[in-house]
Amino acid sequence: MAATQTGIASVYSGEQTANGEFAHAFALTAAHRTLPFGTMVKVTNTQTDRSVVVRINDRGPYIRGRVIDLTPAGARAIGSSGLAQVSLTVLSIGTRRASRSVRSTEG
């Protein structure tokens, strides 16, 4: 049985994500506090009943009640442009960890 979660989805884009990618406005990616990177999640807007499948590539949101941050493309797909009440269904668990962006400066 697939794991589910409900709460508020918000929208973000343009910043570097925790796994080293960028949250491009046109990409179907998202941020979640605990799901492993690469996890595929079906996000359903409970008011419009529209769904989209996104890939987790970032951490957040860190505001109480919010369960996922979607890119603008993901939000549009479920009929939202800001905050929306959603249901999340995990379709597959990813195995990727955050990339380390530590630079060695020898000299």
Question: What features would you highlight for this structure?
Answer:
107 residues, mainly beta, Barwin-like endoglucanases, 6-stranded mixed barrel, 1 helix, disordered C terminus
CATH third-level topology: Barwin-like endoglucanases
Order of helices and strands: EEEEEHE
Based on CA atoms alone, the radius of gyration comes out at: 14 Å
Cα shape: globular
Number of DSSP helical runs: 1
User: CA-to-CA gap between the ends?
Assistant: 54 Å
Detail the topology: elements first, then pairings:
Blueprint (H helix, E strand, L loop, with lengths): L3 E8 L17 E3 L8 E6 L5 E8 L7 E5 L1 H6 L6 E9 L15
Plain-language structure description:
The protein has one helix at 72-77; strands at 4-11, 29-31, 40-45, 51-58, 66-70, 84-92. The chain is mainly β. It has one domain (4-92): Barwin-like endoglucanases, CATH 2.40.40. A hairpin with a 5-residue loop joins β3 (40-45) and β4 (51-58). The longest helix is centred in the last third of the chain and has 6 residues, at 72-77.
